[in-house]
Amino acid sequence: MRWNPSLVCTVAFCALAGQVADATITADFTSNASIKQAAATVAKDLMAWYTGMNPGDVPGNLPSPYYWWECGAMFNTMINYWYYTGDTTYNPRTTQALVAQIGENTAFMPQNQTQSEGNDDQGFWGMAAMTAAETNYPPAPAPAPGWLALAQGVWTTQQGRWAEASAYCNGGLRWQIYPFNNGYNYKNSISNGCFFNLGARLALYTGNQTYADWAIKTFDWVYDVGLMSPTYQIFDGTQIADNCTAKDHNTWSYNAGIYLVGAASMYNYTNGSAEWHDRVSGILNTTVSTFFVNGVMQELCEPSGKCNVDQRSFKAYLSRWMAATAKLAPFTAPTIMPLLQSSAEAALKTCTVGGGNTQCGLMWTTGANDGSYGVGEEMSVLEVVQSNLLPTVPGWASAAKGTGNSTGDISAGTKSDTGDTPLVLSPITTGDRVGAVFLTALALVGVIGGTATMMVTEA
Ligand SMILES: *[C@@H]1O[C@H](CO)[C@@H](O)[C@H](O)[C@H]1NC(C)=O
Ligand SMILES: *[C@@H]1O[C@H](CO)[C@@H](O)[C@H](O)[C@H]1NC(C)=O
Ligand SMILES: *[C@@H]1O[C@H](CO)[C@@H](O)[C@H](O)[C@H]1NC(C)=O
Ligand SMILES: *[C@@H]1O[C@H](CO)[C@@H](O)[C@H](O)[C@H]1NC(C)=O
Ligand SMILES: *[C@@H]1O[C@H](CO)[C@@H](O)[C@H](O)[C@H]1NC(C)=O
Ligand SMILES: *[C@@H]1O[C@H](CO)[C@@H](O)[C@H](O)[C@H]1NC(C)=O
Ligand SMILES: *[C@@H]1O[C@H](CO)[C@@H](O)[C@H](O)[C@H]1NC(C)=O
Ligand SMILES: *[C@@H]1O[C@H](CO)[C@@H](O)[C@H](O)[C@H]1NC(C)=O
């Protein structure tokens, strides 16, 4: 994810006052068919933002202002859309996008993105591939690697970055992969959350204890360093300059969700251990008290009106992962399912703007559109609505249990990526030279300043 201080509403993706009409998506949550129908409308409106399948466009990229990571996150939502509804309409462009962004190292590090890619950006694409394996989403045609291999590739590159990063703060991944990027000296909960989440899910899918060991190690580090409090508040991150003492205390729903479903995967993997039961229960309790207002999900930046483009999509991930948790740790379902329903009902009330009067807004707690719409808003509403179809789908598949057959590859991600060596780039053009000078300048600031403080001011 990128530093993105104050981009909120621009005319390019916000509703103009006066356009607000009556709600045009209605859903009867006592009918699976009705939920599917509502999801189909929201899915169509979400995919209307995507142009990557058009000739001459780039599959797997969204137009500005949406960053590359969010496109990976969006296609995870589309895999889930297929899983929950059986509607295959968007599968061709979903598969095309995922395959286009694989990169030479089978780890979602494509040449065009690698230089500015963070562990979290890569992690969101990796988790999309993991979801494809877990839901038995159809494999991409040969010679594309299996979905499992892609998730393993991402995990393997990140595991390879741990040793270097561990020289600081006794463990934990850095936010950024490369030293020339702002944020290299920051260790954040979302990057470590992606690695924890993937490890726990790979353990569950493959039965390979190595992944579980690393998931435990990562969870323990996050807890011990204080990014997760004893009451399961999860903070944004911490700088290595002071040995990870001070914290950025911002709390985000995607951090709650990523640790919740990782813990639920470990709970399931350990056949219901008391330790992971307690963690799932604790994270869920704090998630509910932090991110729900009268049963409706809310990002903490909403009341101030200062959610940036990235943050506008976070409720998609909390919805996605709460639903998965209800399956993996069934004792949570009586708490989770009613909240997903009340949130979905509230969310649909915001879907009254845009050309067709069905695009959705950000603030579900208000009972009306708040004047915004965009990819993040749409994706969040789609995930929370389709999550209500959870009782109609099987739980995640697993090769270890004989229910999943995605092709894996433990050598994916092992090609020349030590975390410090950028991939060989294409021949330098004038445009790239400008970029290179800029990157060098940033690197110098990093060296001279020693510990250039990251300018994160997420509200
Ligand atoms: C949806 O389908 C599931 C599984 O068939 C069923 O258990 C559930 O009762 C249905 N829900 C509604 C609201 O009809
Ligand atoms: C890579 O970036 C260049 C320059 O922005 C663009 O023209 C090209 O289409 C991109 N290719 C891919 C595969 O992303
Ligand atoms: C840094 O913090 C870790 C615990 O997070 C501690 O084990 C280590 O000794 C500290 N190092 C320094 C140099 O203070
Ligand atoms: C969970 O139970 C299964 C089936 O009894 C067993 O094969 C597996 O080893 C158990 N897993 C763990 C982590 O104890
Ligand atoms: C979470 O809340 C439930 C219901 O209040 C309670 O029974 C449970 O002990 C709590 N879990 C933890 C870990 O505090
Ligand atoms: C693990 O998840 C499956 C659904 O995928 C569920 O049926 C099973 O009960 C879960 N195991 C435990 C120990 O809760
Ligand atoms: C897994 O099984 C399904 C159903 O039999 C099949 O369609 C699919 O091609 C298989 N996937 C792989 C990777 O073999
Ligand atoms: C388990 O995963 C680790 C990490 O990729 C790998 O080194 C090991 O060979 C795997 N074990 C098996 C039995 O596949």
UniProtKB/TrEMBL annotation:
It comes from the Eukaryota. Its main location: membrane. It is an enzyme of class 3 (hydrolase). GO terms for biological process: carbohydrate catabolic process; fungal-type cell wall biogenesis. GO terms for molecular function: mannan endo-1,6-alpha-mannosidase activity. Residues 1-23 form the signal peptide. One of its GO terms (cellular component) is endomembrane system. This is Mannan endo-1,6-alpha-mannosidase. Belongs to the glycosyl hydrolase 76 family. It holds the Pfam family Glyco_hydro_76. It is found in: Endomembrane system. Gene3D superfamilies: 1.50.10.20. The keyword Ion transport does not apply. InterPro entries: 6-hairpin_glycosidase_sf, Glyco_hydro_76, Mannan-1_6-alpha_mannosidase. The chain crosses the membrane at residues 434-456. Its EC number is 3.2.1.101. It catalyses: Random hydrolysis of (1->6)-alpha-D-mannosidic linkages in unbranched (1->6)-mannans. Keywords: Glycoprotein, Glycosidase, Hydrolase, Membrane, Signal, Transmembrane, Transmembrane helix.
